[in-house]
Structure formats: structure tokens, C-alpha cells
Amino acid sequence: MNQTVLLKLVADGHGNVATRLSASAGISRQAASARVSAAVRAGLLVRQGVGRGVRYALAETHRFEQHFERAGLSEDRVWRSLCAPVVADLPSNVRDIWQYGLTEMINNAVDHSGAAVVRVGIVRNALFTQAWVADDGEGIFLKIAKALDLYDPRESMLELAKGKLTTDPANHSGDGIFFSSKVFDLFDIRSGALHFMHDEGLDDVLIERPKDAPGTLVLMRLSNQSTRTTKEIFNKFAAPDEFTFAKTIVPVRLAQHEGEKLVARSQAKRLTMRFERFKSVMLDFDGVEEIGQAFADEVFRVFQNAHPETRLEPVNMSPAVKDMVSRAKSLVL
Asked: What are phi and psi of 262, to 5 degrees?
């Protein structure tokens, strides 16, 4: 039996590991228990509790964390000294992803946070590696909201999801967070009372946290045996035969605050802000049940007429949304 099956059953945190392994692998409960015990002896799992309260967790093989003064900090130095040794024996594509994502996030903290201290940590187990970059600065969502004159810091997440966003265009392209969020299995930003999460295979999620935490925390996770490459992610968002960041996917629901519906032209203008920087924009309407006529008209007629060089591609539309979009598109010049 592939040992990864057992590790994944433990990682999901649902308990009853031996019983579920028995069902999944088609083996007896006793055989499943023996395999769990063997994984504990091999140092892959740790046993917690006794009797009926026994739980299992993935054993950490590496854990390092260090605080750095932000001023003068070099991201490649942090990578080489703290992080690279942890993933040195993993496949080259996995190492490349970690080097790209970690150096980008450390550089963001150094150049944008205004923090006194940057904290970097990395932990590895038999299944995946997880790392984090934290600072005690102003907070990424508040900083973006101020730079773009946004009404609400929640709108910052919509801008991050689009890509090509930076508060320092002279020195940054604005691609780092966008591509980092796509190359990892899990990419998580927490700042202030807001929490934005991109989980591979699931929808982007905006969560409002109960406590207004200072600074910014970026958390990244990747399977140790991932087959993903940075090249395939970059190519996915490049125009054909070009090497430019020309495509983006925008979760439209991020423009919809809790308790609201997307009906106003002002909401549509916030959604389409900076779309003209792309050749193709995929508008993902998953989670949006309906939109208003004015909203649809502003996006699919007014914006499209003003920017014919940008192709808008709506996907995952409910029947009600599809009807409104069709009406608006029929009026495009």
C-alpha cells in the first residue's frame, strides 16, 4: 500500500485513522493498526493520548524559525541559510517553487511593510512542507487600501486576486503575490481582521477574523512530491507566444460584501479597475447567484466598449447571471 494514503488520512485531522485506512485499503482493522504503528516507529507519525483518546499527527522532521531586523535584510541570505537546507533533497521543481515563493514574500515584507522585524519559519513532515513570513508592520490590506484609495480594506483582496498590483511600481512589477498564490497548494494571507486563502482545487476564500491582529502573516504549503512547476504557472497566465503576464482569473464574489448583491455601477467599476492591463480576464461567477442590470451593463458593455483590447470571459454563471450578461453583451458596439 502506498504510504501516502496513510499520511493523508492522518493529515486531514478526522481521527479513526486505522478504521479509515482499513476501509480505504481493503485490509483488516488489525493490519491497518499494524501499519499505523509501523509508521510511528519509523518516525513518520507521532501518537498522542491513550486508549480511546489516541490521536495521530504527522511527525515534524525539520522546524526552524528566526527573527530578522527588516532594515538591510536580504531575502536570498534568508533563503540560503534558513530555508534551502530543509528542502535540499526534494525534487528540483519543488525546490524551485519554494525559492521563488519564499524570496518573493520576504522581499515584500522588506520593501513594503515598514516593520521593525520580519519572522521567517519553515517546518517539514513526510507529506508536505509549510513556511511562513510574518512582520509587525502596517498590514498589507490596509496599505493597499490607502494606496488605491479603496473604501474598505476588504476590497484589497479583490485587487490582489487580479494581479499586477504593487504600491511601488518603480521597483516592483506586482506579480509576486499573484503567482505565489498559484504555485503553492495553500497560500494564506492574514492581516488585521481579514484572512484571504487560496487552496488548490477550492475557491478563494475571504474570512473576517474576530481579532484585529497587527502586521501581516503569509503562510505557504506544498506537497513534498508536487509535480507543479513555476514554468507551467507562468505560462498559464501568459499570452500565446509571449512571456508577459497577460491573463488573469478574478473571483467575482470577492467584490460582493456579506449581505450585499452586485447591482450597482460603482461595484462594477471597482471590479473592473485595472482590467485594461490584461489581454484576457476570466470572470469566475461561482458563488454569485444573481447580478443587477446596471452592474452587468457597466462590466460587459461600458467597460468592454471602452477597452475592446481586453477580452472578458465569464464562467461558472448561474442562469440568472447568464441572462444578465447575455443582455449586456448584446449591446456591445
From this structure: -85, 95
DSSP helix/strand/coil, 172: coil
Q: Where in the chain are all domains bearing CATH 3.30.565.10?
A: 61-232
Interacting residues of 38 by C-beta distance below 8 A, sequence separation 6+: none
Which pLDDT belongs to residue 155? 82
Q: For the domain bounded by 3-58, which CATH number is listed? A: 1.10.10.10
User: What is the C-alpha separation between 45 and 289, in angstroms, rounded?
Assistant: 44
**Cα–Cα distance between 136 and 115 in angstroms, integer?**
5
d(CA 314, CA 247): 13
> Could you tell me the pTM of the whole model?
0.80
Of 75 and 25, more confident = 75
Q: What is the DSSP letter of 155?
A: H
Greatest CA separation for the chain:
72
The CATH number of the domain covering residues in 61-232: 3.30.565.10
281: nearest Cα among 307, 248, 322: 248
